[in-house]
Amino acid sequence: MASTSSHQGRTALMLVTGLTTVALAGCSAIGTSADDPGTSSSGTVTLVTHDSFGLSDGILDDFTKTTGLKVEVVQPGDAGTLVNQLVLTKDAPLGDLVYGIDNSFASRAVDEGVVEPYTSETPAAKDAAQYAVGDTGALTAVDMGDVCINTDHTWFTEHGIAEPVTLDDLTKPEYKDLLVVPNAVTSSPGLAFLLATVGAFGEDGWQAYWTKLKDNGLKVADGWTEAYSTDFSGGGGGGPRPIVLSYASSPPYTVPEGGTEPTTGALLDTCFRQVEYAGVLAGAKNPTGAQQLLDFLLSDEVQDDIPVSMYMYPVSSTATLPDDWAQWAPLAPKPFEVAPDEITENREAWLADWSETVVG
Amino acid sequence: MSTATATRPDLPVTGGPGRVARARRPGPGQVLFWSAAVVVPLVFLGVFFAWPVVVMVGKGFVTDGHLDLSAFAEVFSRPRTWRIVGLTVAQASIATALSVLLGVPGAYVLYRRRFRGRSVVRALVTVPFVLPTVVVGVAFRSLLVQGGPLGFLHLDGTFAAIVAALVFFNYAVVVRAVGGLWERLDPRAAQAARALGASPWRAFRTVTLPALTPAIASAASLTFLFCATAFGTVLVLGGLQFGTVETEIWIQTTQFLDLRAAAVLSVVQLVIVAGVLVVAGRARSRQERALALGAPAQNVRALSVRRPAGMPRGDGHGPALAAAAVTGLVVLLLALPLVNLVVRSLRVGDRWGVDHYTALGTTGGTLTVTVWQAALNSLRIAVDATVIALVVGGLVALVVSRRPRRTVGRRAVAGLDALFMLPLGVSAVTVGFGFLLSMHHPFGLDVDLRTSPVLVPVAQAVVAVPLVVRTVLPVLRAIDPRLREAAATLGAGPGRVLRSVDLTIAARSVGLAVGFAFAASLGEFGATSFLARPERPTLPVVIFRLIGRPGADSYGMALAASVVLAVLTAGIVAACERLRAAGAGGEW
Question: Domain A146-273+331-359 class?
């Protein structure tokens, strides 16, 4: 008995010793230094952005090659979390440049003084100017996208029902129990759709529209992923509902293997335009690097990559769109609009109203 | 082991350093050691948990440099607040009760009975504990959704679905906590009761159940904390109509930046959690005593459908079969979403294939690292987090296992025990945002810890420490104080006694503690998800990013990566089970 117990004790102690050795021998995260001294000779620039940021392999390396600056990417959460963290840390910012503040949070970022003015001299900056927030020049538009209702063509063909076209169509009895949207409070496309209805029916009319949607069997999922992958019939998950809130750029991803056309489409009369901005953070350690990186985001190299890597439309008029986008994912000619400062002023009240009306 | 702890069951645990101290004055080395054992964990918890939380909550209560508590009146005057508090308590209580009701028979079958494939089942039930909620959301909801395999139950988006998912996550907590003790419980006391004419049910109720109560109370309090702070599960499966204090803190902080409301809700959460810890602590200490423990091999019987030859009627064969049936059903229900996950990860368009698994070697186009690199990051961070948690949690367990003679000392020890449970019951958002506010040049030091790779394993260790404490503590508490006295009588100094008695025996539960700390670190997606993670995303983070992208390929990759995370976890837990098979049991 005694010999086995001391043997067991030894085994366990060996495990602890082994684990510690492993940790000390460099298999740990703490043990290895974050900065590779070989590459950071000319300094770094830190980009603070949301969870969905990503550029194709090698693009940020090209920036390093031309400027000698290494880009460190910090991603603290979704778009709302990003802005609120920047507001809370504005005395000691998390980085040098922010990218990914959208038009629903833009005014808050500007009003709180999170970003400071910078006017890019790149050619694309002229295209970006039409999306300027206020007149401070603190935020520069980089890309945009339309949040629209998507439909599953296959389902509608199989059931012999005509597809809806407008927002009002969605309240008709033939589309009862067919629509799923992400939650406006917890999801940024969800909020965008709420804003589309505010734009369409006015500040006092949208509540009545949502009541009608709810009476017509609306389903609210937590996020875009749940709505598109679990509830939507055309999103690969094989859910029960053929109408979903997604993006104008979603259909090209539903071209089946060996097929030539997508099985889904976007309703361009139901869209809200999201614009994503970049800005130099107030109190940045490397403001010059931040400006260089912002210029780089507006360069054709990045602008061409944005549809591929982030599923958004480039703001630059000289950027090239992927072929299937030109064909299957056009932007809405006349999306619904709500001014950024109006959004900032009313967001909380609208969301409270929305919760009351839709969630109950 | 059986000889070491086979004390009289009625003997209260007393002594420890108190008794030794009577014989010998504590030397300076001893004083130094015990001071360090108290101070090191307290400083750790203070710097990396209490301080960030206080800074974050404080920000909500201070307006223009003045303390402003009017937010309390404001928040409590909203009917919504009361509904949320009610829902939080209801969800957590019902899920905890169900987890215990289902988990106790599970503990019996998986730890008191022997059958083929038992270790596989034990590892399997642990997997849900670490899966990212966004993945469980997909795996769960696609079963429940209208037209899905379980769609006929009409559970999608209901309160019942949330409770079911919470039980799914926490079943293992109860099974392991109760099973770890049960398998070592000497059956002779129950047998004696039976010999004296008690029915099997009466023997269970009056002998076995009281002996298990500390473990059940411990498991129930852990489960309650996990349920009360569940965030993704509630949102994905139920939505905001079933919002809890935790989801409300998240919304107020990350979406509305209403720090006043968030601070009030954080205090409410703290009050609920502290109340539960006090109740659980009472239940535990009332029943806690030195137990007659035996080696598992002596206690574990084979599970067979037929009544063993010579076993009289009414001798507990029926209840054992019933427990086996319940456990079989529960394991089947646990397995359903997991199988669903594997099946979906192998679906490529309209055909079957391993394409999504092959893609794990790539960045999927736009991730900063490949999925395998992210898995390696996760493992490395988990190694650090586990080492930190073992050191801190080990020291806490050592201190808390002492039974001071004076009431003040005993209260202090109980307080310390509860204090280190708090990280499980405080919102990850509060901690995560608190890190951002407090870790820039902390204490005037010229370092920015917010973006440092050091902070991630530290934050995970804060969550893993309570698990280590709950694993190691029962073993230390079951040590017969006479063993220490014997060692002292034989001339061993206090340090030697500690080394050759406490540490040697406690080391046997280290395998289990490592397993759970490692698993908790691998699956952690709370506070650390709010931390800046330059260049080194972990596996759950990568899964989260992949599943949020359009396109069937990203979705498939996310599911394949989740299966990798599940297999990794199950493998580590099973390896620790193996080590445990040789060693002694803790609550886990």
Answer: alpha beta
